Amino acid sequence: MNQTGYTKEVMKHFQKPHNYGRLKKYNGLGKVGNIVCGDVLWLYLNVENKNGKEVIKDVSYETYGCVAAISTSSAISDLAKGKTIENALKINKEQVIKVLGDLPPIKIHCSLLAIDALSEAIYDYLSMGKKPVPGDLREKHQKIERAKQVIEERYKKWTEKEKQK
């Protein structure tokens, strides 16, 4: 690790992020954020049927966040591209961290944000296509949605207080 606490791989992904930008053609979109640190991630998937299997042909993202958020977004885009939906759903934080060589413990949540964005994009793809959604993915989506509602409620209260000033 260098003096910033990041590995060379993290810095490579940050300085030259892979698959950055918005896909022109996508059929799955995952939008996630973390109110505590302010990171926001939109992850786009283009899934195609290949020999009877749903394969992620292309993936890209737009991230507003820190070095770790951008690097983990880049890493997850590399990990997911070319995988079947089933295999992409198995990507975990340890795999993301391994690609990056390591992350400071305080930045591990960034890898979870990237994983959540991938899960949400896959959920979006399956539900929009009226395809069966695995139970564990449905549960994860509901958990993410509940967290979004809490954040929106907190934000609503804050904006009401600001209007009263």
From TrEMBL:
Q: Which residues form a coiled coil?
A: none
What CDD domains is this protein classified in? IscU_like
A Pfam family of this chain:
NifU_N
Q: Which residues form the NIF system FeS cluster assembly NifU N-terminal domain?
A: 6-127
GO MF terms listed in the record are: iron ion binding; iron-sulfur cluster binding
Q: Which GO terms describe its biological process?
A: iron-sulfur cluster assembly
Output this protein's name: Iron-sulfur cluster assembly scaffold protein
Organism lineage reads as: Bacteria, Candidatus Portnoyibacteriota
